[in-house]
Amino acid sequence: MGSRTVVKIGSNVLTRKDGTLDTTRISSLVDQIATLRRNGHEVIIVTSGAVACGRSLFKGHDKLDSVQQRQLFSAIGQVRLINIYYNLFREYGITIGQVLTMKESFSTRKEYLNQRDCMEVMLSSGVIPVVNENDTVSVTELMFTDNDELSGLVASMMDADCLVILSNVDGIYDGDPADPSSKVIGLVTPDTDVSAYVRTGRSSFGRGGMLTKSSIAQKVAQEGIKVMIANGRKENILVDLFTEPDSTLHTEFVPSTGGVSSVKKWLAHSVGFAKGSVIINEDAVSVITGPEAASLLLVGVISVDGEFEEGDIIRILDPSGNVIAYGKSSYSSADAAAGLGVHGLRPLVHYDYLYLEQ
Length: 358
Prior knowledge:
Layout: E1 4-9, H1 11-14, H2 23-38, E2 42-47, H3 50-57, H4 66-90, E3 96-101, H5 109-124, E4 128-133, H6 147-157, E5 162-167, E6 187-188, H7 210-222, E7 226-231, H8 237-243, E8 251-253, H9 262-268, E9 276-280, H10 282-288, E10 301-305, E11 313-317, E12 323-328, H11 333-338, E13 354-356
Parallel strand pairs: 1-2, 1-5, 2-4, 3-4, 5-7, 6-8, 9-11
Antiparallel strand pairs: 7-8, 9-10, 11-12, 12-13
Helix pairs in contact: 2-4, 3-4, 6-7
């Protein structure tokens, strides 16, 4: 087929102001995704809405804490949400498949590849993966920031050509969106700094905000994937983004040129799983950040902090304590400490498993 597109649909797109599920909006989005499929797109959906859906279906939860409420609401709401998608897509003769995942499922290369292989099989069989975080078993410290983070990881993992983040605003504004003089920033290049424009507020029914969206979008664009942030409440927005992009209000993040390996994409989105850290000397900093591809050798390591095993992701710090890179360790922390400063040993982190912070 043609291009591969990940569509992230936010909670505020799928719910009304009172928090109930907007089935008319979901139906419209399904219509548009069916059109994209006819136009040659492979589509992966990352959908929010399960918790909001469950909240509107179930009463009598006042005695539950916030984690228990989220687990209960998502367990109830996910059933209804996926059935709505199933029935709407069935009208087009399109089969969907549910993919529930957790942040820790991306922490090892093996689990990462298992998920990728699963979705590749679905796509090659003409099935649309519908992805959501498994809130029923996630706990706060192991959760994604929100589904923006999950959609960025999925887009990267699946080598998508484009990630569309649908929110309840038209894009990133150059000021307060409530100010009539503010305008949507149409194009964000790799060297554009949008942080000054982005507010830190969060949506009513979601966990993330525009700050999360912009940071995820920039990271994904750096990996060579185009990202578009648009208003999912606008009629025909998905189709218009691809057929009439110049006249459709949205913010587009221009992808960087140059390929990024699958392994480095995994590392870029897995930095939160680092198990320990090493401090390296200035010579080693110059080598691994230089223009030539280079691995990190133990001879350049000053100290080892924390406990990690071979294959774990570790932080790599300069002598001042600044994180400059992440990598997959070829040693346990004990073996790495024993080899500090020793010449002739295999690399602590091979270049293929080294990700430099931007």
